Each structure stands twice: as C-alpha cells, then as structure tokens.
C-alpha cells in the first residue's frame, strides 16, 4: 500500500515538475468544474420550485453561472491538459533515456529484470503522459461526488445509499484492473521476446538471412505463439473484471429506481418538493456517471501506478549504480600504463568467471594485441577497460589509480574505439565520423577541424569511400532515409575513421577492426594503423588490438594470448615464436594457409 502512495506521489511530482503553471491551472479548473456539474442540477431544482411558487428567481442566476463555468472551463481545461501532456511526455522521454544511459556499465541492458522494467517503462510511458488527465479526472469525481452527497443529504439521508452502490462498482473495477496488471507483469518477458522476433523479421539488415534460410513462416509462427501465450492470461483477467462490473452495474440500476420511487413518495407525503424530485432524477445519473468515470480513472490510475513504480525502481537502481561513482579525472598523459591486478570477472547473472586471475601490465605508449580462440575473453577485457563492467575481484589501475575512482565519462572521453560490431550511423559522413569525438560536433562552423577529419579518414583508410560519395563528407548515409548505400567494408572504414578522430587518447581499442575488410585493405590499414599508433604513443596512450589474424598483430609490442579466460602466454612476436607455444603454432597454421 505504501508503495502505491509513493507511486501516486511520483505521478503528482511528475506532473508538477513538467510544468508547474499548467498543472496548477488545470487543478483549479478541474475543481471549479467539478462543483459546477451538480450545481446545475441544484439550479434546475430551484427553478422548478420557482415555477411551482416554492422558490425565488435567484435559481436562474445559479443555473446560468454553473452552466457558464462548466462550458468555459471545459474548453480551457482541454487546451491546458493537451499542452501539459506534451510537456510530461517530453520530460519523461528525457528521463528514460537518461536512466538507460547513465549507469557506467551495460549490465542493466543484459539483466532480464532490469530490461523488463526498462521495456515496460518505455512501452507504457505514453500512458504516463495521461497522468495529469487521470489525476484531474479522479479529483473532479471526488469533488463532484462530495457536492452531490451534500445535495442528496439535504433531501433525505437515506439517499446517500445511492453513491454507496457506486462504490461497489468502483471496487469491481479496481479488482479487475489489478488482475489485468498482474497478468501484464507476468507476461512482460513474452512482450520483449515477441518484439525482438518482430524486429528480426522486419529489419532490412536481417532481410538476406531471413530469406536465404526461409525463416519468414517460422518467425511469424513463433510471433503468433508468443502473442497467444502473452494474451491468454490478459484476456482471462479482463473477463473476470468485466463480469464483476456487470453485476455491480445491475445493482446500481436497481438502486436508482428505488431512489426515485422513494423521493416521489416523500413528495407525496409533503416532505419533499417537486424541485427535489427533479434534482434526484438529475443527480442519480450523475452518480452513475461519476462511478463510471471513477472506475475508468481507477483502472487507468492502477496502470499508471505500476508504470510509476517501475520508474521509481529504475531511479533507485540507477542511483545505486552511480552512487559509488568516482570523481577523479584521468591523467593528462600516461606515464606508467594500465595494470590489471588479480582481475576476475563473471557476467551478471552467471557464475562462471570468463576472466580469471588476470595479472598484466600494459605499458604506457605501447601497442598491445589480444589473441585467442572464440570465447577466450578478449572482448570481455575490452569491456572491462571501458568500464562497461567492473571486475568482480581485483582491480584495474591507471597509472596506479583504481579505474573505479575515475569519473567514467571523463575516462571514456579519453578512449577511442573501433569495433567489429560497429554502429552504422545514418547521418552525414561528417557526422558519422565526428561522433568519434562528440565535442567537435558542437564546435562552431568554420572551426579549423578539417585537418583532424583528414587525419582520421586517412588513418581509417576511408579516403576512397568519401571520394566516391556525391557530396563528399556532407553526403547522407544509409538508404533508410534516402542516403547513399555503403558496403559492409565501407561502413567499417568509416567506423575506423571515427575511431581515429579523437586526439591524444589514452586508450585506443580496436576489436577486430579489420573483420569486414579484404586482406589487401587489411595490409593498407596496418601501415596507417602504425602511423596512428605513433601519435597515440606520444601521449603515453596504449593501443589495444583484438584480432584473429595473427599477421595483423605481429608488429605489436606486446602480444597477450588468452585461453578460456586465462592469460597463457605473453611477449612480442619474436619471443613468442621462439617459445614455440600456442601462439607460434597458431601463427604457423595461419601462415601456411596463405603460402
Ligand atoms: N553478455 C554476456 N553475458 C554472459 N556471458 C557472456 C556475455 N558476453 C560474453 N559472454 C561469455 O564470455 C566468454 C568470453 O566472451 P568474449 O566475448 O570476451 O570472447 P572473445 O575472446 O572476445 O571471443 P570472440 O573471439 O569470439 O569474439 C564467452 O564464453 C561468452 O559466452
């Protein structure tokens, strides 16, 4: 229950934080209009009494005033609410993006519970936009119900039973809504799986594979099955709620009839006026409508409270994740280098360490290569160095300082990276490269940046790609938005140019950067890569290269050979060849394939 109240407080804060003025105006309008509704019935009753000689003409003034407030308020309130909803949506969108991206690591994307909550919040956040309307309408019903109660009690206290029957309907509705929300929570995973399959089926990037393997039927069948599994419990819950509501409505109808008979009897006994009979006839449907609106509001509110509770959970989680965040700045230049001391690591939600008791020193200004079989732990080491994850045991020291004490964003601003799994940014070519150093994108036009872009383009061997584009660097990329199409290798060259844009990085991470390139291009890349490494070297920066092609890594100052999460050999090419171990064996094997 406490959780519900806190979620309600979250909703109210959300509304007022999005736009305090609009929220206050809406609140005032809602209350005034809520009183104006029942007052109309009161005005009509007084008019009837005036006609039958039992009242004065001031009734006409009351009626006119109530009508004017109700109509004028309705128009104004609609306009205010729409604007307020847009403001809420915008601020919520920002917050969700912030929540998803502010933890230093990406563990929250990979843990099902967190992914579910993020997914639910994202899927349903549009509902939250309706928060102002829902809270307003709940408040309106409460205020108008109190006004109705006062008016009915003025005729006869027994008439208060009528709104009580409305409460029964409310309970039925709340019960049904809760059941439905439970069904939704229980099937949240289905939703994510079904969305992922739909994305595979529809994304152009997967189009070739989906067609080549003839997966369309299989994918649509699976999507259909998941849809059924997801919806069956939801439908059941909804049916249960609807049955209860029907029963409650029938009871209310009977009560309405009885109330009218009762007040007519009172009038005939001379204990009520003709106006009172009119007022009960007008107010009773209002109680019914109020119950209907309140039950709708409760249904929506329960859904909103659920989303708000996800939001609160995520805020707490992100708060915990960032609470211990270090604030130190990375060193301007590296003098000693990076040391991994007794580092072990298992992915969240798993037991098996994929990096074990790792002790290694990456000297400042060196080029270090990581080699090893699939799944040996190379990419994991890259993720640890970028602080996508922190080690479960041991520490990573940057010139002696624990990486966890360094502000993660400041640390990443000194890292350049090129990955096999690079992103195809469908912007202009300049932006796609410029994202390698976002600060440059914000610099004023005309800033002397061309040299930096030229250097990055040459280092990434992307010159030919740019020259071929109709408007050079200003060409929009990607066919989805009408831009130029590129091959996998061409996209990768741009990704490499992006990796080389940042000046004076402390760490350059290249994880299989040549995977989409042909062997000739790979050699050309190597020469440029050496030149780029020299620049990095000058600031003590370390270049870390992950590759399966040993011809690519032979020039590295230090080669680390991994096997099943452990470092099994290390040294330069010559030393490892003379040691005649795993590296030498692999190198010979690959070289013989090219002979
Ligand atoms: N997000 C994850 N959650 C759980 N386990 C993971 C995750 N990512 C990787 N692993 C596991 O960690 C181990 C090491 O993976 P990693 O990607 O570091 O290997 P790698 O040496 O880079 O392999 P490859 O050469 O195939 O790229 C593998 O057994 C892999 O299954």
From TrEMBL:
Residues 338-589 form the ABC transporter domain. It is a multi-pass membrane protein. The chain crosses the membrane at residues 12-36, 56-76, 132-152, 158-177, 246-267. GO terms for cellular component: plasma membrane. PROSITE patterns: ABC_TM1F (PS50929), ABC_TRANSPORTER_1 (PS00211), ABC_TRANSPORTER_2 (PS50893). Keywords: ATP-binding, Membrane, Nucleotide-binding, Transmembrane, Transmembrane helix. Its main location: membrane. One of its GO terms (molecular function) is ATPase-coupled lipid transmembrane transporter activity. It comes from the Bacteria. Residues 27-303 form the ABC transmembrane type-1 domain. It is found in: Cell membrane. Pfam families: ABC_tran. This is ATP-binding cassette subfamily B protein. The lineage of its organism: Bacteria, Bacillati, Actinomycetota, Actinomycetes, Propionibacteriales.
